[in-house]
Structure formats: C-alpha cells, structure tokens
Design a protein that fits this description.
This protein is α+β, with helices and mostly antiparallel strands and 191 residues long. It contains 1 helix and 9 strands. The chain has one domain: lipopolysaccharide transport protein A fold, CATH 2.60.450.10. A 9-stranded antiparallel sheet has the order 1-2-3-4-5-6-7-8-9.
C-alpha cells in the first residue's frame, strides 16, 4: 500500500511539472497576443525571433506563489512554433508548504502541440525527500503521458529504484519503469 502511495505521489509531481510548463507557454503566448510588454531585455540572435536572458517567471494566485521558473535563456522560434530554454529550473509551491523542483540543461516546448522535452541532467526533487534523476523526459500533452528511454533513478526515504525507460500515464495515475528494474528498500532488502 505504501509503495502505491509513493507511485501516485511521483505521478502527481510529474503532472504538476507538465502543467507548470504548459502554463508558462500559455502565459507567454497571452502576453504576445495582447501586446503586453515587460521591461525585459529583448535580443534577436541567429534565426531565433526573440531571445531573453536571465529569466525568472513567478505565478501568484490570491497572494500565494504557486510556481516559479528560472532559465538562463529562452529563445522563441515563431516559424517553427518552438520555444527553447537553457538551464531550466521550475519550482512548484504546494499546499502545506511542500515544494517540487524539476531542472535540466535544455528544455523545448512545441507551441502548437504543447508537447515538451527536458534534456540533460534532469532532476526532480520534492521537499519531502523524493528524488528522480534521468537524462531526459518528454511530456506528450494530448495523451497526458511522460516518457523517457533513459536510465531512471528514484530515491525516497525508504526506497531506491533504478531501471531503464519510464512511462507515466497521468490519466490512469500509473508509472512504469520498463527494463532492468532493481529496487532496494533502505532497510537493506532488495527486490
């Protein structure tokens, strides 16, 4: 039963991270459509339409911070409907003071489909001691699924899990580590 609760917690964390990135995308698109401007440096670089550096986006609801996104840079490519982020860190503030942070070297948001990718040293941590580490994750918005073909390491207060490949179905609230799975209960028992 405890294992099922922890899996549901991990699925919830991944769902929240996907929602934050989708909200960021919608927020940026809404500002662009309304013509709203911020005092943020705007530099055109290469074939990118817009490049912003040293970004911090914060969303507040009813005076409470709900999430924040930090990135070294964001580049938007209108002709490809792609937004690329570099050195990304998203922190989600939950009820009860709990936080969840996901970070990675590079992120990509496909603006037409709302699909997202995070690649390079992907790390998801929660303030209550859970940690997921992998090389990359992809969020498929229309299917509400998160996948990775890479090595996945999950660690909690009582368990360590290592395997290759992961599939998260957010609708069904299930997570599967696909191959070469090894679990170790921190009491010493392996499974």
């Amino acid at each position: 039963m405890m294992k099922k609760v922890k899996i549901l917690l991990l699925v919830s964390i991944l769902l929240i991270a996907g929602m934050v990135l989708t909200s960021l995308w919608l927020n940026l698109r809404g500002r662009e459509a309304s013509g709203e401007r911020e005092d943020v440096p705007k530099v055109s670089v290469g074939d990118a339409d817009v490049r912003l550096e040293k970004i911090l986006f914060v969303e507040d609801k009813h005076g409470q911070k709900t999430w924040e996104l930090e990135a070294k840079s964001i580049q938007q490519y209108q002709n490809q409907n792609i937004m690329e982020l570099e050195d990304v860190r998203v922190t989600v503030y939950m009820e009860g003071g709990r936080t969840v942070t996901i970070s990675g070297n590079k992120g990509k948001v496909h603006q037409d489909s709302k699909d997202m990718e995070l690649v390079g040293d992907v790390l998801l941590t929660s303030s209550d001691g859970y940690r997921l580490k992998t090389h990359s994750v992809s969020y498929h918005h229309s299917e509400r699924k998160v996948t990775t073909p890479d090595l996945v390491e999950v660690e909690g207060k009582e368990i360590q899990l290592v395997g290759t490949g992961m599939f998260v179905d957010m609708e069904a609230k299930t997570i599967k580590v696909l191959n070469q799975v090894k679990t170790r209960w921190k009491g010493g028992k392996e499974g």
